[in-house]
Pentapeptide repeat protein
Amino acid sequence: MEVGNQSIELIDKMYFSQDDFIKLSNCTIKCIDLIGCFELDAEIVIENCVIEQFNIQSCWFVKGLTIRYSIVKGYINYQMGGHNDVPLIFDHNIFTDFFNFFDCEFNALVVFKNNIVTKGTNLLGNMGEGFGNRFNAGWEVENNLGDLNLNREV
């Protein structure tokens, strides 16, 4: 399913259970609320969107998540996430608040390139702690603006 040029109030797990491929492009989205979804079985692509709230705590993007050329305005709490069998790709985005990666285990590659993280992230922080992120297939991180290795949980 592809959705483009829309103004969307709420996207929740029911939205993603309809198809195994979802692409959102050129949309303004008030809230993506996927807290506690665990195994989402859809490949999700978000491009050229503005997202006010992005709630993904305990969400497993098994078939991957790609966010490109988008702006996420609120704090993102991605605790106990990962468990992806396909890469997670964050490319050419602006994250205006802290992006909290906390206690995530990524089975496939994580790509974090060409992003602006104005208040930072702990994607590569908290290493050696019991709640540090685990990258079973590694990561590709390059050309980002902002601190990616903060040692904290927010």
Remarks:
- The radius of gyration is 14 Å.
- Residues 2-142 form one domain.
- Helices lie at 13-16.
